[in-house]
Known about the structure:
By secondary structure, the chain is α/β, with parallel strands linked by helices.
Amino acid sequence: MSKDVTLTVGDNAYPGRLNTPEEPSDRGVLLVPGAGHGPFGDVFLRFSRAAATQGNYVARFETWLPGDLEHKSDAEFRRELAASVDFLVEQGCSTITVVAKSLGGKVALEHLPEAVDRLVLWAPAVLVEGSENVPDEAWEHVSTVTPEEFDVDIPTRILQGDDDNIPVDSADRLAAGLTNGELVVLPDENHSLLRDYEHVIEETIEFLPE
């Protein structure tokens, strides 16, 4: 089942949804969306239902709308992510996984709270320096990084389609540069992750703690 919830961060309140398992559980998942869409439809909805069926609380909050991002500071991203994780702790979750898509993946890499046990990145919107087969327009619109700049040492799975403007080579370099990173390549998948969302959900749920 699912219900409407609200995330309070300082003076701001953000709408959200919480999918709950049939039996009480100590496992929680936080979904973080990308820049051009909210967290309530498409693969987010399908994954939330499937992960709850597997015994997880799944929370997702609309802490930004398209066009809001240029006005957000790093401190705001950090507070919102921490408050979202705290929300799951308040539900009784002691083991927490963050699943973040596109720009949300960059936010998670930069501002991951210490309470998070695992990280799944869906087509993260970062380009690793030295990556090959990168379209020219991608260099203009996606941040360039080195994996070593991220203080992330928890188990991390990256799901990357091989028909995305962000090439597999970049995701491979990112996974190799993280302490506990691994890459799953999604054949014929693009940045939307909707061509074969069943595969996306399967690979993500398989990585969640039992």
